[in-house]
Amino acid sequence: MPLIPEEPQIHESAQGPRATPAAGRTAPTPRPVPGPRSAASPRPGHPGPGPARPTPPQRTHSNAGKPRQPQQENRSLPQIQLIPASADGALDAAGEAVDLLLDSGRSPGDLLVFTTGEQHPWAAHELSFGEAAYWAQHDAGDDVFYADAALADRAATRPVVVVAVNSGPDDAAGQALPAALKKAAALLIVCGDPKRINAVLAAGV
Questions:
Q1: How many CA atoms lie within 13 Å of 177's alpha carbon, on the beta-carbon side?
Q2: Whole-number Å distance between alpha carbons of 4 and 177
Q3: 3-class DSSP state for residue 76?
Q4: What is the DSSP secondary structure assignment for residue 77, as one 8-state letter?
């Protein structure tokens, strides 16, 4: 199963409708990635034009329907964006990315935010009421949900996943990125030091 692609698919976006306070960081304008692709050509059903290709019923024995399986396996990966930020500023960069996504029309329930180091203050606060209440908010799916990247497997897939690489060992980032990629249906945004992230990717993540 393919993990995160090489550097060419990670886009450092210099666009941003706001002037962000941190100089070394640019929050890209999140654009709605083509998510509803099921109605397009990948559907293996007969479209209906029928350009004069009436194959005789005798040829129906040939395995013409078999190519459907490779089409399902070739599921398009989400778009990946990199927001350069230091380890100390990754959490702020993730917060700015979330704000931009919400301003662009994304529903709060579309967003999932992972941290590789220190927990997001919201997650720390909600966990103080117990894990049952914390995960009940996740299951409700009506608000932005913040979680430690180590808990990525427990989280459900959402259209947009934001990862804040805010400290933590390199292998924590190495585990967080592929896990986050699996949870992102349309867009994965990674906030952190580009050199560190690219080093993790080059190591075979």
A1: 28
A2: 7
A3: coil
A4: P
Structure-block tokens of residue 164? 């804040």
The 10s digit of each residue's pLDDT in 120-151 is: 999 999 999 999 999 999 999 999 999 999 99
Average pLDDT over residues 68-86: 70
Per-residue confidence (pLDDT) for residue 35, from 0 to 100: 40
Asked if residues 97 and 27 have their Cβ atoms less than 8 Å apart, the reply is yes
Find out whether 162 and 112 touch, Cβ atoms under 8 Å.
yes
Partnered with residue 192 across adjacent β-strands are 84
Alpha helices in the chain (DSSP H): 68-73, 90-103, 121-127, 131-140, 170-183, 194-202
Distance of CA 35 to the CA centre of its chain: 12
Q: Is the model's pLDDT at 31 over the cut of 80?
A: no
C-alpha 176/C-alpha 94 separation (Å) is 15
The pTM of this model reads 0.63
Q: What value, to the nearest 5°, has the Cα angle with vertex 178 and ends 173 and 182?
A: 140
